[in-house]
Design goal:
Blueprint (H helix, E strand, L loop, with lengths): L12 H18 L2 H13 L20 H21 L1 H5 L15 H24 L4 E4 L6 H35 L3 H13 L5 H6 L1 H21 L4 H17 E2 L11 E5 L2 H23 L16 H19 L1
Length: about 325
């Protein structure tokens, strides 16, 4: 029902290439202009400023406050998300919602349920790792920045995670599904692409690709499973948004891609424990979500998809409307 949305409108390869090129240009060039301008102005004031060679994403090296830096780095993602959705109609002649969910409206209950459950799981993980001493942290509460950080993180980070979800688990997964016909192939391809684009993150340089890259790839698989099983991005988007918001507000470290004035700074980080914990937490989430939303059996992920005929589309629309009415009740 969600992947099959790719059969709506016009979806020839030229349109997909055009969309990707436009979005990349908007994100990497136009969206990055505010940050580039900000860095340039800072260097005009102080020519001695230089990038942090250990973490190129540490904007404090340019005398940019962490919260301002966070906002500036999210602008490209926000612009990418907005333009990707807006361009769905003129380029593909499809409604923007078709790349977000298989249903007739965005399921906010799923979004907030996923975010809430993941918050609980992350909290348990953080308390356990801290109490046991597996990871050591340093308390660094600053009342002048902390509450601003909460507001900025909650408002802006869903745009960053939303862009990644719509692009990878929505747009690209649907596109690869049309080419390869089986659900598991676009699931793996988008997870690998998603993981590879994090290769230049400072965590990879600090702890090594062998231990960090599997985390990003597994995140891609985890979010993809949620999207396929739940026929939409709402659940995965909620989890992804809460994951980044939680890290932004509560935990940071010198090698983190998110450099924020978080409540705690990790001084002794265990990437292996983090990897194992991520897998365990995500499997717990999948188990709970599968029972709550009555997901199909696992073989659903390896089934073939096909172009629905008109009768099937009409029936699908009827089921969607019935689901929406049930959710409202």
């Amino acid at each position: 029902m969600f992947l099959e949305k790719v059969y709506q409108g016009k979806n020839d390869i030229g349109r997909w290439i055009a969309m990707i090129v436009i979005v990349v240009i908007l994100c990497q060039f136009i969206g990055s202009l505010p940050l580039s301008l900000f860095i340039s102005l800072k260097m005009l004031d102080n020519p001695d400023l230089q990038a942090n060679p250990e973490n190129l994403m540490d904007l404090s090296a340019y005398d940019i406050s962490p919260i301002t830096g966070l906002a500036l780095t999210i602008i490209p993602f926000a612009l990418g998300l907005i333009m990707l959705l807006i361009l769905m109609k003129p380029i593909h002649e499809r409604p923007m919602l078709s790349v977000i969910t298989g249903y007739s409206s965005f399921r906010w209950k799923n979004f907030f349920w996923g975010a809430g459950v993941w918050l609980v799981l992350l909290s348990v993980y953080a308390v356990f790792s801290t109490i046991t001493g597996i990871q050591k942290v340093e308390f660094q509460f600053d009342s002048t920045t902390f509450f601003t950080l909460i507001a900025v993180s909650i408002v802006l980070l869903p745009f960053q995670t939303g862009f990644e979800e719509v692009l990878f688990r929505g747009y690209l997964m649907q596109g690869f599904a049309k080419i390869f016909k089986y659900k598991w192939i676009p699931l793996l391809i988008t997870a690998l692409i998603f993981g590879s684009l994090h290769f230049l993150n400072p965590e990879v340089k600090e702890y090594g690709a062998a231990i960090v890259m599997p985390q990003y790839i597994w995140f891609g698989i985890f979010f993809g499973i949620c999207a396929l099983m739940e026929e939409g991005l709402e659940l995965a988007w909620g989890v992804h948004a809460m994951n980044n918001i939680f890290l932004s507000i509560f935990f940071t470290q010198d090698s983190s891609a998110l450099q924020t004035p978080a409540l705690y700074r990790i001084t002794d980080f265990s990437p292996l424990f983090d990897l194992i914990s991520l897998f365990v937490l995500s499997m717990i989430f999948i188990f709970v979500a599968r029972r709550k939303y009555k997901w199909p059996d696992w073989h659903y992920l390896i089934e073939r998809i096909g172009q629905p005929d008109k009768k099937e589309e009409d029936q699908s629309d009827y089921i969607e409307d019935e689901y929406d009415e049930y959710e409202e009740k």
